[in-house]
Write a structure and sequence with these properties.
Blueprint (H helix, E strand, L loop, with lengths): L1 E2 L16 E6 L8 H5 L2 E3 L2 E4 L2 E4 L6 H9 L4 E4 L3 H14 L4 E6 L7 H12 L4 E5 L5 H15 L4 H13 L1 E7 L3 H5 L5 H10 L4 E5 L2 E6 L4 H18 L1 E8 L3 H15 L4 E4 L2 H7 L3 E8 L4
Parallel strand pairs: 2-3, 2-7, 7-8, 12-13
Antiparallel strand pairs: 1-8, 4-5, 4-6, 9-10, 9-14, 10-11, 12-14
């Protein structure tokens, strides 16, 4: 979903060249160092452990968060405040009053982050901020962000940056297999009945996002079969053409790295490996194999 505030066009139908700044939130799981290298502003969500709140990616490391979560700490999270978004946007526009901002965020059906960004933008009463709902999480946010950065750095006009980022969101697919449904059921991201059924029947479903909410892609009975089905899904996307692909893990890096190596061996295509940050990790748990795929634009 794209939230426009304006169109700025010259009489000939072309926008003037000007700086376009990219903003996202900490659920994007951008590769380490990417935000600093490309000047992306990351507004942190907050994660809690036993009632103590931390800024995601700032006040607590991923490893420390997972250590405490596995040890039994009760996790929670909250989105940034509108004032934090207003501050982030205001700082950018103070440095570059003629510039524009494209702000891409976690699915509005998973988090109130996009709504906070909208309220923050409205507090500034600015027409220089465009908001994009990625309908996704994790690398499903990162890939549209990376595309927006690539286009902005190439100097393409604002409307094209936003349109192509939004189009990539619609071509981005997330699949994940969990070892336990405890965390995702506790967080209300999948129905309690579905979690109980999965536990009782000992199935290892492949989960996905459908229109921004958690859904079931397939219901294999064992993890071995789940991974075989996941390979079949990956192969289908590779045949169509892949723009980006990434693999995500919680505490099970060795397992997911092995899966990534197998992907490289099979297809000889580049990929990204990223740990799931604490807010999403709190929702899905520490043992997860995530595959995020952005397909190429149809010819």
């Amino acid at each position: 979903m794209l939230l426009w505030t304006r169109e700025r066009m010259h009489p000939r139908g072309k926008e003037p060249a000007m700086a376009i700044h990219i903003v996202t939130d900490s659920m994007a799981c951008l590769p380490q160092g990417y935000a600093q290298e490309h000047g992306v502003t990351v507004v942190p969500l907050r994660v809690s452990l036993d009632g103590e709140y931390f800024r995601d990616g700032i006040d607590i490391t991923n490893d420390e968060f997972y250590r405490r979560l596995v040890a039994g700490a009760k996790g929670g999270s909250t989105q940034p405040s509108p004032e934090e978004f207003a501050s982030a946007y205001g700082a950018i526009l103070e440095r570059d009053p003629a510039g524009d901002i494209v702000s891409l965020h976690v699915s509005s059906r998973l988090s109130g982050t996009l709504n906070a960004a909208l309220t923050g933008r409205n507090q500034l009463e600015t027409v220089h901020v465009q908001l994009v709902d990625t309908w996704n999480a994790g690398l499903g946010i990162a890939f549209p962000v990376m595309r927006a950065v690539e286009l902005a750095e190439a100097g393409v006009p604002l409307w094209q940056v936003v349109a192509e980022a939004e189009a990539l969101c619609l071509r981005t697919h997330t699949y994940f297999v969990l070892d336990s449904f405890t965390y995702i059921e506790r967080g209300g991201r999948i129905g309690k009945a579905a979690a109980i059924t999965a536990s009782v029947l000992k199935i290892k479903p492949i989960l996905t996002f459908t229109q921004g909410v958690t859904d079931v892609e397939d219901r294999p009975r064992t993890k071995k079969v789940a991974l075989e089905r996941l390979w079949a899904i990956i192969d289908k996307h590779v045949q169509k053409g892949i723009e980006y692909i990434g693999f995500q893990y919680g505490t099970n890096r060795a397992e997911v790295e092995g899966f990534q190596r197998e992907f490289t061996s099979r297809y000889n295509l580049p990929s990204i490996l990223a740990q799931i940050e604490p807010v999403l990790g709190n929702q899905v748990g520490p043992d997860i194999l995530g595959v995020i795929i952005s397909e190429k634009k149809p010819q």
